[in-house]
C-alpha cells in the first residue's frame, strides 16, 4: 500500500550524474582536465561538465564552513553536492566523542544548506559494520542526531539486506544507496529498493573482483563499464526508481585513469535516450 506522499509523486524525476570526487591529478593525463590544471581550479572545470559531485575529502577530515563557502563560489548556483560523512562517525567511532563530531559536521556543511545546494549526506558504512545489536543501536542514534539533513546510507555488509532495515529507513525517510560492485561473498547486493521518494542514490564502484580487497585504491576501483552494463542498470534499476522518486543522484567511484568521468558522460547520454530528465542537459 502506498503512502500519501508516494501517491502524490508527479512522475517527473530529475537525475543528477557525476563522480565521487573530482580532484585527481591523473585526470589531467586522461584528458578530462586541461594540461597544467591546478587542483584548486579543478572544481570550476568539473562543474562545466557535470551538475553534481560527491565530496570525498569530508570522509578524511571534518568539513569546515570556510572551505565549503569557497567551493560554492566556484560552481553555478544550481550545482548540487553530496557530502560523505566523516570517518570518525562511520569507521573510527569514539563512543565518547561521536556526538560532538556529528555537531561539528553539521556546522561545517551549513553553507550548503543555506545555499540549498546540499543534495545528500552520504553515510558510507564499512564492510565490517554488520547488523549486530550494538551496530543497530549506533546507527539509529546517528540517524537521530543527523535528523533534518537529507540522509543516504550505503551498507557494505550483506546482513543489512533485510526487510526490517528497509522498513525502518522508509519510516525515517532515509535513502538506501544502491550499489554496483563486484559480486563477492558478504557484500551488500545491487538493489532497486526505494526507501525515500524524495531521492534515489546510486554508486558505481566498478566490478574489479580481483582488486576489490587488495587494499590498494588504484586496484580496487580500476574498472571501465561497458555501455551494455550501464544500459542494463538503467532498465532494471534506475528507471523503476526514477518512476517513484522526485530526484536521483548517480555517482561513479571508478576514478582510475578518468574512467569515472567517461562512464558518467556515457550514462548521461543513455539516460537521455530513454527520455529521462537529466540535470544540466537539455
Q: Can you tell me the CATH superfamily?
A: Protein of unknown function UPF0759
Order of helices and strands: HEHHEHHEHHEHEHEEHHEHE
Main sheet summary: 8 strands, parallel, barrel
Strand portion:
15-25%
Classification by helices and strands: alpha/beta
Provide the number of structural domains: 1
Q: Report the CATH topology name.
A: TIM Barrel
Fraction in helix: 25-40%
Number of helices: 12
Strand order of the largest sheet: 1-2-3-4-5-6-7-8
Task: Give a short overview.
Helix content is 35%, strand content 16%. The protein is α/β, with parallel strands linked by helices. An eight-stranded parallel beta barrel has the order 1-2-3-4-5-6-7-8.
Summarize the structure in words.
With 282 residues, the protein is an alpha/beta fold. It has a single domain, classed as Alpha-Beta Barrel (TIM Barrel). Helices cover 35% and strands 16% of the residues. The protein has helices at residues 4-7, 26-29, 42-46, 57-60, 65-72, 98-108, 110-115, 133-145, 163-172, 217-220, 227-242, 259-273; strands spanning 14-20, 52-55, 80-84, 118-124, 151-154, 175-180, 200-204, 247-252, 277-278. The protein has an 8-stranded parallel beta barrel with strand order 1-2-3-4-5-6-7-8. Helix 8 (133-145) links the parallel strand 4 (118-124) and strand 5 (151-154). Helix 11 crosses helix 12. The protein starts with a helix and ends with a strand.
Amino acid at each position: 500500500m502506498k503512502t500519501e506522499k508516494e501517491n502524490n509523486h508527479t512522475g517527473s524525476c530529475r537525475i543528477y550524474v557525476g563522480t565521487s570526487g573530482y580532484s585527481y591529478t591523473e585526470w589531467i593525463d586522461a584528458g578530462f582536465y586541461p594540461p597544467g590544471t591546478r587542483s584548486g581550479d579543478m572544481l570550476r572545470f568539473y562543474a562545466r561538465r557535470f551538475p553534481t559531485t560527491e565530496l570525498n575529502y569530508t570522509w578524511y577530515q571534518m568539513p569546515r564552513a570556510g572551505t565549503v563557502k569557497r567551493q560554492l563560489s566556484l560552481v553555478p548556483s544550481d550545482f548540487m553536492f553530496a557530502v560523505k560523512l566523516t570517518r570518525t562517525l562511520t569507521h573510527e567511532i569514539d563512543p565518547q566523542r561521536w556526538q560532538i563530531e556529528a555537531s561539528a559536521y553539521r556546522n561545517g556543511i551549513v553553507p550548503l544548506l543555506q545555499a540549498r545546494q546540499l543534495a545528500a549526506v552520504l553515510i558510507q558504512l564499512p564492510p565490517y559494520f554488520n547488523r549486530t545489536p550494538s551496530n543497530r543501536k549506533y546507527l539509529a542514534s546517528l540517524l537521530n542526531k543527523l535528523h533534518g539533513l537529507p540522509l543516504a546510507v550505503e551498507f557494505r555488509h550483506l546482513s543489512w539486506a533485510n526487510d526490517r532495515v528497509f522498513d525502518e529507513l522508509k519510516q525515517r525517510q532515509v535513502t538506501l544507496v544502491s550499489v554496483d560492485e563486484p559480486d563477492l561473498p558478504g557484500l551488500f547486493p545491487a538493489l532497486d529498493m526505494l526507501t525515500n521518494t524524495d531521492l534515489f542514490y546510486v554508486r558505481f564502484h566498478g566490478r574489479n573482483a580481483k582488486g576489490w580487497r587488495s587494499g590498494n585504491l588504484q586496484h580496487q576501483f580500476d574498472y571501465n563499464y561497458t555501455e551494455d552494463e550501464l544500459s542494463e542498470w538503467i532498465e532494471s534499476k534506475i528507471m523503476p526508481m526514477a518512476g517513484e522518486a522526485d530526484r536521483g543522484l548517480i555517482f561513479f567511484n571508478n576514478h582510475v585513469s578518468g574512467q569515472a568521468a567517461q562512464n558518467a558522460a556515457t550514462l548521461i547520454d543513455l539516460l537521455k535516450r530513454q527520455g529521462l530528465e537529466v540535470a544540466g542537459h537539455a
